[in-house]
Each structure stands twice: as structure tokens, then as C-alpha cells.
Amino acid sequence: MKSSVITFPGSNCDRDMDVALKKFGFKNKMVWHDDAELPKSDLVVLPGGFSYGDYLRCGSMASKSKIMQSVINFANSGGMVMGICNGFQILVETGLVPGVLLRNKYLEFICKNVFVKINDKKNNYFKNVSNEILEFHIAHNEGNYFCTNDQLKEIEDNNQIAINYCDKNGKIDDQFNPNGSINNIAGIFNKAKNVLGMMPHPERMIDKSLSGEDGSLFFKNLINNLK
Amino acid sequence: MKISVIITLKKDVLDPQGKVIHQTLDGMGFEDVNEVRQGKYFEIDTKETDKDKAKSNVEEMCKKLLANLVIENYKILDSK
């Protein structure tokens, strides 16, 4: 399985993602934002970080960079594109997934482990994951998912909500919502579910001695689903 | 020609920064403030000399980059 991680000026989780993908068997290539064409890939990842210093709106500049037209074409032809954290912000700015990510409700940068509940398993990202609840890490200032009421109805009707913030038992409630996101939304799909944007970082949970292993579960499962 | 643009959050979008500014103003003694909404201001110097064309170019810029229409409105001000 071949993957590509795009590096934008200001990306800082691109190498972590490279380590994670390689650990679970992907042949990964790093791709520079100014390249015109993606290499042949089964999965494209937009990593976390602070592309273009978060100028204007997080992800807005990166969404217009040269490589993104190739990424958008790849996604529109059914290719798997995953945006993590700043990558999620870039995805919403391209319009590949609906909504926006606003400043966190209490204006704090949040850096901690959270639990998320998988809302939909009929997709290549979460199909066959044995757990219902995963422990991931979040680190962001603008993760407050917002969309219009019409968009919310549409993503609910199409089962496009991927994961919700919850407690360790899977209870989805306001008190387990770290950033003010509508309905505790932590990640969403596009309509066809080949594009996933999520705030949590699975690549930070791939080592038992450092953090946790729910990211390992996620990546092992992902590569098996793509084979 | 210089064209100015003001970008504001739509009215039903939460503006936590505006809220904090409001609270701070309140604490400073400006107690008659009802609400504060924070926005962005752009001054675009363009080579275009036709005012209408310049404005319509700036409108395209607003739609494609300067504003995110899910949460923001834009207002193009008269040129100087």
C-alpha cells in the first residue's frame, strides 16, 4: 500500500505521520506542497501543524497551494484522503468536507488525550475496528466544529459524522466536549466517505511506552481495509 | 486604486473573542456596551483603474479566499 503525506510550510506532524504509516506497512512518500502532481497513492494524508502560520483562517492558504488541485482531483475520483487536525482545517477550506473549524469555545489551546466514539463503520477508515471507543490525542486552538443547520441535517442524514467526543464509556455529552463542537463532532466524512477529516491525532498513539496504542489499532485496521 | 473590505462573522456564529473583549470593556467601566463582534479589515491596492471592475475582482477574492461564506459576510467599501 502506498501513501503520501503532504508537507506544507508550517506542517509539524508530517514526520510523525510518516513514522506511523511506515510502522504499519505503508510505503510512504513525503510530498512538497509546491509539487504539481501526487505520486501514485492509495492514501493521501494532510498532516497536522500550523500551515502558513494559520494566517487569515487556519488551513485557508494551504487549501490553495499547488498540490491541492491534484489532491482534490484524487478525492473526487474516489481516492482516500485523510486530514488530521490542521489537515482537517485544510479539508474544510477546500470544501471536500462540509463545515468550518472555529476557535475553541473557551479560547484555550487544548492539548490532552480524549475518548472518541466511532459513529459509522461503513467506510474504509473504521470498518472492522474492534473497539467502539478509541483514545486519541488532541492539540489544537481551532477545533470547534461548526456548520449551518442545513449542513448538519445533511451530514446526519448521510451518516457523515465519523467520530464524536465522549467519555471512556462512550457517553456523548456536553461535559466531554473539549472545544464546543456542534454535537461533539470530532471528525466527519465527505458524502462518499473516502475523505475523512478529524481533529484527533491517531499517529500520536502508536507506542505503548509513550502514549497508547489505539492509534496502532486504527492504522493496522486501515491498511488491512485498503489491501 | 485602493479597495477596502470588511469581513464579519454571521450573526448566529459564536464569537468568543468578541465576548471576551466585551467582558474586558465592561470591567474597564464601559458598562453601556450591548455586544462586541470582532471582524477583519483588508485594504487591497489594485492596478485596475475601472472602479466597477476593481470591485467585482475584489468580490471574487472575497468569495474564493478572504471570507469563508459558511461563517462570514463580506462588505466591499467605496474606493479611495
Describe this protein's structure:
The complex is a heterodimer of chains A (227) and B (80). Chain A is of the alpha/beta class. In chain A, 23% of the residues lie in helices and 26% in strands. Chain A has a single domain (2-226), classed as Class I glutamine amidotransferase (GATase) domain (Rossmann fold), CATH 3.40.50.880. The mean pLDDT of chain A is 97. Chain B is α+β, with helices and mostly antiparallel strands and 80 residues long. Chain B has helices at 16-27, 51-66, and strands spanning 2-9, 39-45, 72-76. A three-stranded antiparallel sheet of chain B has the order 2-1-3, with helices on one face.
Give the structural class of chain B. alpha+beta
Kindly state the number of beta strands of chain A.
11
Task: List the secondary-structure elements of chain B in sequence, H or E.
Answer: EHEHE
- CATH class of chain A, named Alpha Beta
Query: What percent of the residues of chain A sit in helical stretches (DSSP H or I)?
Result: 10-25%
Question: How does CATH name the architecture of chain A?
Answer: 3-Layer(aba) Sandwich
Number of domains of chain A: 1
At the fold tier of CATH, the topology name of chain A is: Rossmann fold
Largest interface: A-B, 19 and 10 residues
Are there runs of chain A of 5+ residues with pLDDT below 50, and where? Answer: none
Helix content of chain B: 25-40%
CATH superfamily caption of chain A: Class I glutamine amidotransferase (GATase) domain
CATH superfamily of chain B: Phosphoribosylformylglycinamidine synthase subunit PurS
Q: β content of chain B, as a range? A: 25-35%
